[in-house]
Amino acid sequence: FFLLLTYDVLPSVSNTLFRGLDCMHFKESGHDYLRVDTSVSCSLESEDYVTLLSIAIPFIIMYPVAVPLVYAMLLVSNRKLINPGLRNDEASRRKRDREPKLKPLWFLIHDYRCDRWWFEIFDIARRIVMIGLLPFIEVKVRPMVGCGMAALSIIVFQEGQPFFDPVTNTLAEMGQWQLLVTYFMAFCLGTFEAESSRTRIAVFVLLVNVLIIIVTFSVGTYNHSHNKKNEEIIFKLRRELGNEKAKDKSKFDAGEYGGRRTTDNGRRA
């Protein structure tokens, strides 16, 4: 329960801790002030800022850094149980799900393929960087850095196919494309000064995001129905194969019994 609790509050707590260190520059005064509280100067001469640093930095080390490391250590130490290495991934997943030792780690591995046991750590690190560290980058280059990170995430999700459910893989990929489009449009907004151009780009971003949601829902629905049909076909084939095996076994048993009877008759003769 404790591990699950740390996982549930990790994004929000990390965001709060990093926001406490996010400063913005004011050209008029030439000084930096906290974005969440502009009465606090981002200077070591400010007593409030020094106090904030003394609280925030240890908690950043204890939570956004240490907690994912603990998850990683637990997954690495149990990787052989998480990924039994059977030929069939579904069989490996069933064996993994029956392992009582892995129940405390259920929330970290349940949705993933057995050989992608490490993927949740990557995703946690990706989210922490995007919501916590990205705001510290200069505003002018922030959208391009966001585009680069989103593009990298697209490649990882596309090539890795980490989730057991293909529909979830599709939704995850579409989510990364949505991030890429949003950051790219943010970059475009920074290059136009005219209010009318900014309004058009904002409307375009909204329409693109709505379109991505519609496409994602359509593709997810199609994949779900397609996978369901495939599962029904596979189930039917397995049932037919089982029936054929049962018939072959019956024929074999009947032939073996007849052979023994002939032998016994020959001996009697």
Description of the structure:
- The protein is an all-alpha fold and 269 residues long.
- The protein is 74% helix and 3% strand.
- The chain contains 9 helices and 2 strands, in the order αββαααααααα.
- The chain has helices at residues 2-19, 47-77, 79-82, 89-97, 106-109, 119-133, 142-160, 166-191, 195-268; strands at residues 23-26, 31-34.
- α1 packs antiparallel against α2 (47-77) and α1 packs parallel to α6 (119-133).
- The protein is elongated, with a radius of gyration of 29 Å.
- Residues 257-269 have low confidence and may be disordered.
Concise structural overview:
It is built from 9 helices and 2 strands. The chain has helices at residues 2-19, 47-77, 79-82, 89-97, 106-109, 119-133, 142-160, 166-191, 195-268; strands at residues 23-26, 31-34. A two-stranded antiparallel ribbon has the order 1-2.
Mean pLDDT: 80
Walk across the major sheet and give the strand order. Answer: 1-2
Number of strands: 2
Fraction in helix: over 70%
Intertermini distance? 77 Å
- The 3D shape can be described as elongated
Order of helices and strands: HEEHHHHHHHH
Please report which band the strand proportion falls in: under 5%, 5-15%, 15-25%, 25-35%, 35-45% or over 45%. under 5%
Helix/strand-derived category reads mainly alpha
Stretches where pLDDT is under 50 for at least 5 consecutive residues are 257-269
Question: Mind describing the biggest β-sheet?
Answer: 2 strands, antiparallel
Rg calculated over all Cα atoms? 29 Å
User: In DSSP terms, counting alpha (H) and pi (I) runs of 4 or more, how many helices?
Assistant: 9
